[in-house]
């Protein structure tokens, strides 16, 4: 079952695929909703609590992604390491993945990460160092620590992507599975 993430002081929903501000260049969701499988929702709550202790919050770019949208993204990107093959399902269509960044609760400003969300470049990798500022490297490490301490795992090519491990047994969901109507 998919559970909505609610915007609050420590969570900003900036669902990029419901806007033109994404690598496809057009909305692929009809509405800006962030949904997660129940287990992923609980794990995100643990990460958000840890972030609040540090005076930080999360800006959410994407969560559950219907398999139909996964196919649109697959077709739109040339470097296939940045989007899971829809034939294999992936983690977003199972509701166990998040694309996110950190922001400072006091200022509301996002922490510098060295590249933007969905930057299809080797600089987006967790392990990238050359070409990144020490501040960006530190902020990525902070995001990695907060998320992995709460049970998430990272995806090496994308500093913004985290998913729950061992979710391959969960069903791949479509737009018809979205509570309240399709995304």
Question: Could you characterize what this model shows?
Answer:
There is one protein chain. This protein has a single domain, classed as Muramoyl-pentapeptide Carboxypeptidase, domain 2 (2-Layer Sandwich). It is 23% helix and 18% strand. The strands form two sheets. The chain has a five-stranded mixed beta sheet with strand order 2-4-5-7-6, covered by helices on one side. A two-stranded antiparallel sheet has the order 1-3. It has helices at 38-53, 67-76, 134-149, and strands at 2-4, 11-13, 35-37, 56-62, 97-104, 153-155, 158-163. By secondary structure, the protein is of the alpha+beta class.
Question: Topology, please?
Answer:
Elements: E1 2-4, E2 11-13, E3 35-37, H1 38-53, E4 56-62, H2 67-76, E5 97-104, H3 134-149, E6 153-155, E7 158-163
Radius of gyration, CA atoms, in whole angstroms: 15 Å
Chain oligomer state = single chain
- The tally of domains stands at 1
Distance between the termini: 15 Å
Work out the strand percent.
15-25%
CATH class: Alpha Beta
**What is the overall number of helices?**
3
Structural class: alpha+beta
User: What's the CATH architecture?
Assistant: 2-Layer Sandwich
Keywords: Cell wall biogenesis/degradation, Dipeptidase, Hydrolase, Metal-binding, Metalloprotease, Protease, Zinc
InterPro entries: A_A_dipeptidase (IPR000755), Zn_M74/Hedgehog-like (IPR009045)
Enzyme class: hydrolase
Site (Transition state stabilizer): 65
């Amino acid at each position: 079952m998919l559970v909505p993430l609610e915007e609050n002081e420590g969570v900003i929903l900036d669902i990029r695929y419901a806007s033109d501000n994404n690598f496809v260049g057009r909305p692929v969701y009809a509405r800006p909703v962030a949904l997660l499988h129940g287990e992923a929702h609980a794990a995100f709550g643990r990460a958000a609590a840890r972030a609040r202790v540090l005076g930080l919050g999360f800006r959410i770019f994407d969560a559950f992604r219907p398999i139909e949208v996964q196919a649109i993204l697959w077709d739109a990107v040339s470097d296939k390491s940045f989007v899971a093959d829809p034939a294999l399902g992936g983690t977003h269509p199972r509701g166990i993945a998040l694309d996110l960044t950190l922001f400072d609760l006091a200022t509301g400003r996002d922490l510098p990460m060295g590249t933007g969300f969905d930057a299809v470049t080797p600089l987006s990798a967790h392990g990238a160092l050359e070409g990144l500022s020490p501040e960006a490297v530190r902020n990525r490490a902070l995001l990695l620590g907060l998320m992995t301490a709460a049970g998430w795992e990272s995806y090496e090519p994308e500093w913004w992507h985290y998913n729950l491990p061992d979710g391959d047994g969960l069903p791949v969901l479509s737009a018809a599975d979205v509570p309240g109507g399709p995304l």
